[in-house]
User: Fold these one by one.
Assistant:
Number 1:
Amino acid sequence: MPEQLAAITGHSTRSCERWLAGHVDPDGPATLSLMLSPHGPTFIEAKVGELSLKQQTAFWEEMKRAARRHELRLRRAKIDAEERDLITDRLF
C-alpha cells in the first residue's frame, strides 16, 4: 500500500510508510492529490474503516463540516464579487 500511495502523491515510499503508520500526517498537496486521484476515495474509505465506529463517525462529521465551510466560502466569494461589480459600476 505505501507504493500505491507514493504513486498517487508523488512522495517517497518511506514518507508514505510514515503516514500510514500514523507517525506524521501528509502535507496539504499530498492530501489533495490523494483526494483527487481515482483511487483516493477507495483508499480513504479503507483507512477510515480501520477506525473505531466513534472515530469513523467523527471523521465523516468533520468531512461534512469541511464541505459546508467550503460551500460557504464559495458563496461568500460570489457575493463579494457582485459587491465589487456594483461599486465599480457606480464609479464610472
Number 2:
Amino acid sequence: MRLHSKYNATLHSAGGLTDEQRQTAEQKFLEVLEHALGGASAVRGAYVEWTAVRSMRAENPGGCRSSEELQAIARWEQAAEHATRAVFRQMQIAAQNAFFELEVWNSRTH
C-alpha cells in the first residue's frame, strides 16, 4: 500500500496469480500511471476529476459536454488503459476480464 499517495490499486479477475504476483502487478500499475500522468498527486487529481465528471454526466446525461470534461475523461481513461496494457504485457497476464480498480481516499479521513 502506498500511504504517501493516498490511493492504492487492486487487480480484479486475474485468476492464477499468487498474492505476490498480484501485489507486484498493482505496484507496477501505479508506477506506470504516475509516470504517464506526472506523479502521485497528478494521478489522484486525474482520478478525482474523472469520477466527478462521470458523476455529473450520470446525473445529467443530456447536458452539454465541455472540452474540459471530455479532456478529463480522456486523460484518465487513456492513462489507465496504457498502464493496464503495459503491466499485463510485462507480467504476461492473459486474463480477459482482469482490470485494476483505483481506490482514492479523502485526506481528511485518512
